[in-house]
C-alpha cells in the first residue's frame, strides 16, 4: 500500500544510450514500494529507438508550431514527422517570420517545406460543410479526417454500407465542397470503457465507477490554483458518480468535463507524476516529466489498465495518422504491427512518448478504437480546456 511522495529518478547518462539499453537509469525503488524505471525498460527496444530518433524532430516541429501560433497565418496546412526530417506543408509563400522559425528548427533537425494545394483553414471550412452533409445523409460516412499534406478531405464510411454509391457520392462532394474528398471503408470506433493505486493518485491505474471497473486514470494534473485532479475520459462517468481504486478506496467524483473532447477531471486530494506501465499487480512505472504537442507520423505508446493486464505492459508502435476536424478534435493513430490498439477499460488511460531523461512525455488520453486503430484526445486540448499541466 502506498505512500509518501517519492523523488524523481535522476541520471546523467545520455538518453539515446539509455533507451537502447546500453547505459542510463536503472530501476529505483520508491519509498512506497513502487519501482520507477526508465521508459525503455517497459516500452521495448524498438519503440524506445523510434521515440529517441523522433525526439529532435519533435523539438524542431515545436519551434515551427510556436511561430505559427504567434502569427496565426492562413497559409499553414500541417506539420508531419518523416524519416529523419520534418515536413512543413504550406499554401502560398512562406512569411518571413516562418522562414526564420524554419531556419531555427533546422539547427535541430532537417526540415523540408512542401507546397500544399489547400490550407488548413480552407479544409476546416470544407470539413464543417461536409459534417452537415453527413448528419443529413449518414450513409455517406461517419468521420471526417484532414490529411496533413492538404490534399483534401478523407471520409470514413462503414464497410459495405452504400459502397456501390461511394464513387458517385465522392464526386458529388468534390464539386459541392470545392476540395477533393476520398472515402475509406472503416468501421466506427468504439469507446473503451492497475488494480490497487492509492493517494497520491497516479496515471495508468484502474478506475472503478460506482463499484465497477470501467476506465483508466490518465495523468495526475494540477491547475494554477493548486487544485489537483486525475485527467481521464469524459465518457467514463457523469456528475455524482463515485470513483475508487481497485481496492474500493475513494478517489473522488467527476468535476470539470468537456463532452465533445471526451476529457474529464476528477478532483482529488493528492496526485503525482508517476505512471504505471507494467501488469495489473506490477509496481513498475515511469515518471511523467511534462507534456508536448502531437504530430502526424509520431510514434507513441498507451498504458491502459486492461491492455496491461492482458499483455503485461504498454501497447506501443502507435503511429499518428490524422487529426479529426469535428467537435471532438480527436487524434487517430494505428498500431503498426496490426495488434489491438485499445481494449475495454483502457479509456482515459495515458498516451505518451519518451523523455530525454528516461521518463515519459504526456501526449493525451485514450478514447475509442476499432482493431489496430485508436483515437485519443491530445494533452494540448486538455491544457487549453482546463488550464492544467502535469503535477510534478
Overall description:
This protein has 392 residues and is of the alpha+beta class. α3 runs antiparallel to α4. The protein has helices spanning 15-19, 39-43, 45-71, 96-105, 120-136, 166-177, 305-311, 379-386, and strands spanning 28-29, 35-36, 76-82, 85-90, 110-115, 143-146, 153-157, 181-185, 190-191, 201-203, 206-209, 212-216, 219-223, 228-232, 243-244, 250-252, 257-258, 263-267, 271-276, 284-291, 299-302, 315-324, 331-335, 350-354, 360-370, 373-378, 388-390. The strands form 4 sheets. It has a 6-stranded antiparallel beta barrel with strand order 21-22-23-26-25-24.
Report how far apart the termini are: 21 Å
Portion of residues within helices: 10-25%
Widest β-sheet, arrangement of strands: 21-22-23-26-25-24
Mean pLDDT across the residues is 86
Extract low-pLDDT stretches. 1-26
Q: β content, as a range?
A: 25-35%
Structural class: alpha+beta
Total number of strands:
27
Report the principal-axis shape: globular
Radius of gyration (Å): 21 Å
Q: Main beta sheet, described?
A: 6 strands, antiparallel, barrel
Number of helices: 8
